[in-house]
Structure formats: structure tokens, C-alpha cells
Task: inverse folding
């Protein structure tokens, strides 16, 4: 929880705000200084916009950062426009210019890397989205580790972690509540993403109080499906104790209820984990032709 708090507050919120305010308020001696600072600020805000976990503070706040950036660009350029392109710099100004230039390259690389995770060259498996009646947010998803930490693990590299947003665009009431019913997705019905056969089921594990986790049973309560006409296995994990309605060997129809979202297994909070794998390797999945990534919404 401490690391998540640090990332959200310091990196995702304070870092871009500081650079936006610096661009807006600080006076430069030349256009060159302003350009370096402007590019560094744009790269940082874009990176946070693309890779931040906005379900923790409100999905809609990410657009406020873009608005603040545009306002800052307008007023700072208005102030900078009369300045010469270059001027003699002090030692401190040279160091500042160098830092901003370094940040442009570092965060530019991060952004290019994140953009590569927006698509995949591999053939994606088409599934029906397993949740209904709400606004669902992809917290982990995509083809790059900046968007999806699962991508570092071969069998789960295209896995999705999905939560539900309340009316404020937040996944839960409170920052990190211990009460499971404070998470918007907890107890939502999970539906089969395809026609197929039930290969594996586990249903007896207890739902855990965040941030407890069960590393010995990483899937928690889960259903594994073999979808018709697909040589792969789809895993739906972290389900609610004793909520699963199917047993091993059952045939299921697409969108048939399977059980409820819970908080069992190696999990930090209630969410849906879904991934497909073939011969031990993760394969991409898509819904209605869309390859979902972090910050994608499904309504």
C-alpha cells in the first residue's frame, strides 16, 4: 500500500504538477530554455497520462492535467515570445538546460515504449466481455510492462486486470479500504467469454481483506475454459468464495453466468483477472475487436 501511495501521490500527481507550474511561472532568458523546459513538461505529462493508474484518484482527473498543460503552454509562450532564441547562460542555467534535455530523452523513450504496448502483431483471440452493467476500467493491460506488469511473465503477458468505476470515476470508496463491499466491482456477476468447456474449477478459498494475499494459490477461486474452435485456455481468476456456478466438464454458452468477482488468491484488492494461454505462453485477447490497454474503459 505504501508503494502504491508513493507512486500515486508523488510520481503521478506531484511530478507533473510541479513541472506544469514551473513552465507557467518561471521566467526564462531565451526561447531555447523555454523549449527544453516545455518539451520536458510535455513528455512527463504525456507519460503520466498514458501509464498512470487513474482509477485510484478519478479517471477524469487525467484530463485536468492536459487542460492545465495547455493553459501553461499558452501563458508561458506569451511571456517567452519576445525573448531571443539564445542568450548567454550562467552555470546554473546550463545545468538546468541539461537536466531538461535529459528528461526529454528519458521520458520520450518511456512514451515510445508505452505506445508500443497499444497493439500487438500477434493474432488476438476474440472473446465476449465478461462483465455487464457498469463502467469497467483496465488497470493492467497492453503489450508493454509500463502498461501491464503481467507482460513480464510469459504465460500471462497479455493478461488484463479489470476494476469497476463508481460515479466519481474511482474504483472504490476510500483510497484503499479494507471492506470488500467498498470496491465497486466486488460481487459483480462474471459471464463466460465464449462457448466452451469447463476444464478446471476452484471455489473454496476465502475472500481476503486487502492488502492480504495468498501466494500459494495465485489464481484464487477460478474457472478455466477451453473455448470452442480455439486451441488455448482462458483463465478467469480471483472469484468470490463458493460463488462459482459450474463444475469441471460442464458445457457453457457465451455470456452464461459463471460466478462473482471476489478477492481470493494472490490479489491486492477485488478485481477481475483474465488471460488466455497456449502451450504455456500468453496470447492476446480482444473484445469486440478492441485490444484493451491500461486506462481503457468498457461501458
Result:
Amino acid at each position: 500500500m505504501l508503494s502504491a501511495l508513493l507512486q500515486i501521490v508523488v510520481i503521478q500527481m506531484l511530478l507533473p504538477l510541479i513541472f506544469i507550474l514551473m513552465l507557467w511561472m518561471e521566467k526564462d532568458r531565451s526561447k531555447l530554455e523555454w523549449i527544453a523546459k516545455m518539451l520536458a513538461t510535455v513528455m512527463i505529462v504525456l507519460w503520466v497520462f498514458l501509464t498512470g493508474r487513474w482509477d485510484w484518484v478519478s479517471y477524469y482527473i487525467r484530463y485536468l492535467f492536459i487542460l492545465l498543460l495547455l493553459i501553461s503552454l499558452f501563458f508561458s509562450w506569451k511571456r517567452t515570445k519576445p525573448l531571443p532564441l539564445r542568450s548567454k547562460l550562467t552555470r546554473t542555467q546550463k545545468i538546468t538546460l541539461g537536466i531538461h534535455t535529459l528528461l526529454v530523452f528519458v521520458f520520450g523513450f518511456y512514451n515510445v515504449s508505452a505506445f508500443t504496448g497499444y497493439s500487438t502483431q500477434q493474432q488476438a483471440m476474440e472473446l465476449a466481455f465478461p462483465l455487464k452493467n457498469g463502467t469497467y476500467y483496465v488497470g493492467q493491460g497492453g503489450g508493454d510492462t509500463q502498461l501491464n506488469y503481467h507482460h513480464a511473465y510469459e504465460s500471462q503477458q497479455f493478461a488484463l486486470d479489470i476494476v469497476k468505476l463508481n460515479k466519481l470515476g474511482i474504483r472504490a470508496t476510500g483510497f484503499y479500504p479494507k471492506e470488500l463491499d467498498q470496491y465497486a466491482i466486488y460481487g459483480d456477476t462474471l459471464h463466460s467469454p465464449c462457448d466452451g468447456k469447463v476444464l478446471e474449477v476452484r471455489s473454496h478459498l476465502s475472500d481476503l481483506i486487502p492488502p492480504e494475499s495468498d501466494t500459494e494459490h495465485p489464481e484464487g477461486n477460478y474457472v478455466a475454459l477451453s473455448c470452442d474452435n480455439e486451441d488455448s485456455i482462458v483463465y478467469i481468476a480471483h472469484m468470490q468464495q463458493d460463488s462459482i456456478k459450474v463444475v469441471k466438464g460442464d458445457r457453457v454458452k457465451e455470456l452464461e453466468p459463471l460466478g462473482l468477482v471476489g478477492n481470493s488468491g494472490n490479489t491486492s484488492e477485488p478485481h477481475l483477472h483474465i488471460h488466455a494461454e497456449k502451450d504455456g505462453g500468453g496470447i492476446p485477447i480482444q473484445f469486440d475487436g478492441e485490444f484493451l490497454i491500461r486506462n481503457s474503459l468498457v461501458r
The chain has two domains: 2-116, 125-298. The helical segments are 2-25, 31-51, 61-80, 91-116. The two ends are 28 Å apart (CA to CA).
